[in-house]
């Protein structure tokens, strides 16, 4: 018995020693990593092991935006800054030279850790190997080439009818609220209309989220977006208070993929029997799969989910931020409203040619993306050593790029915090490599033109029909939920404008 006890104590001691050795070795490794990166400027680490993480955690608790901290750091430490977390060091590059080098070339893949995290959501396949997350250049390139025709200019011009129709449905819903008293979230309304648009245009689905977003499918998309926000909280999977949300997010994702499967099967049949010849995103997804050696249903579903996620919230956020900025700047609102009146007059349906004439509105939308980019940046992985702004960046490093931060740096934009659409006038100097709300280079947004056509149609109709006011007392803070969105949802009150003679609703 005593011998057994002695053996157990010895085993425990050995285990403890091994543990101490492992901790010691890990600390040596962390020191080695520090030595490799400490020549890169950065704020002092708060802790040897945790690095800068405690600062981030404190900010997250207070719902503050970490990008604002990095903006302060960039002013203090320069355009290349280090960020430490345990044995990992990421480098933030806020210089046009760096943006050009890393984003314009296909040789730097997206970061495996950051994009790997959204392969699954709470254990259910989420964006998988879809177009946003695919890290294999050959495979991505094949997918992108097949998808391109659904975003060609000629095809997009044909979408004007749907943009008009869905925006008109939004106007009808807003008219019901436009008594100058009812308060509502502009973000919610914009999310519903952009969801209806992407569902119809990409997959031929009539969701009617504008009429009722409690129906299962739109609700599932809302829950998935919520899941995306929550999955950023460290250890959220283990928090008892979050289990209901996690269950709902998982079920919603399964529903989305199930509906995607039905859509794909139906469309495949329709194409085979010669009944379907639209060039929409769903058809392109099927064509892409036909090029593969083996049928890959999961990959097709990854793209189904990808287009729903990438193609609606981003535009909804841009639209809501634009409403917020305009309501805060009455003189700009007046000018853009005058342009809309001049171009559209009493017209109900907006043509592609009209969009080209709404030049100041384009500038307003661009300026909104400078201060409030729904996708704040992008992340790459470098396998070779680089020197940017005279700072050596070691091989095998995560490099982060932020249009949010660069868009607010005095170095690149005069009086950066002022909302001034004239920065984007025809004669103004172009912000090369310091403004990239749709990213740049080969992995830039495939939906950029689509999104800006949609945003212009919605904004033009809104400006033509309504006066809008912000409800006082809201914070106007930004929330980073994977995309940047207005924390308080842009609470508004609307009043109808007197419409030009001859307008027919
Ligand atoms: C204002 C609206 C939008 C903004 C600000 C935006 C922004 C972006 C950004 C910054 C990226 C690069 C992401 C990264 O590097 O990880 C991206 C990629 C992408 N976006 Fe958008 N986007 C918008 C609208 C749309 C729409 C409407 C669609 C679909 C119809 C779409 C589909 C995609 C896809 C599929 C990719 C991946 C492209 C690739 O890697 O080949 N986006 N978007």
UniProtKB/TrEMBL annotation:
Cross-referenced CDD domains: CYP46A1-like
Cofactor: heme
Signal peptide annotation: 1-24
GO-annotated biological processes: cholesterol catabolic process
Coiled-coil regions listed: 157-184
Catalytic activity entry: progesterone + reduced [NADPH--hemoprotein reductase] + O2 = 17alpha-hydroxyprogesterone + oxidized [NADPH--hemoprotein reductase] + H2O + H(+); 7-dehydrocholesterol + reduced [NADPH--hemoprotein reductase] + O2 = cholesta-5,7-dien-3beta,24S-diol + oxidized [NADPH--hemoprotein reductase] + H2O + H(+); 7-dehydrocholesterol + reduced [NADPH--hemoprotein reductase] + O2 = cholesta-5,7-dien-3beta,25-diol + oxidized [NADPH--hemoprotein reductase] + H2O + H(+); 4beta-hydroxycholesterol + reduced [NADPH--hemoprotein reductase] + O2 = 4beta,24S-dihydroxycholesterol + oxidized [NADPH--hemoprotein reductase] + H2O + H(+)
PROSITE patterns: CYTOCHROME_P450 (PS00086)
Residues where heme binds: 445
One Gene Ontology MF term: heme binding
Pfam families with a match to the protein in the record: p450
Keyword line: Cell projection, Cholesterol metabolism, Coiled coil, Endoplasmic reticulum, Heme, Iron, Lipid metabolism, Membrane, Metal-binding, Microsome, Monooxygenase, Oxidoreductase, Signal, Steroid metabolism, Sterol metabolism, Synapse, Transmembrane, Transmembrane helix
GO cellular component, one term: dendrite
Pathway the protein contributes to: Lipid metabolism; C21-steroid hormone metabolism; Steroid metabolism; cholesterol degradation
Role of this protein: P450 monooxygenase that plays a major role in cholesterol homeostasis in the brain. By promoting constant cholesterol elimination in neurons, may activate the mevalonate pathway and coordinate the synthesis of new cholesterol and nonsterol isoprenoids involved in synaptic activity and learning.
PANTHER family: CHOLESTEROL 24-HYDROXYLASE (PTHR24293:SF1), CYTOCHROME P450 FAMILY 46 SUBFAMILY A (PTHR24293)
Protein name per the record: Cholesterol 24-hydroxylase
Annotated source species: Aythya fuligula
Gene: LOC116489988
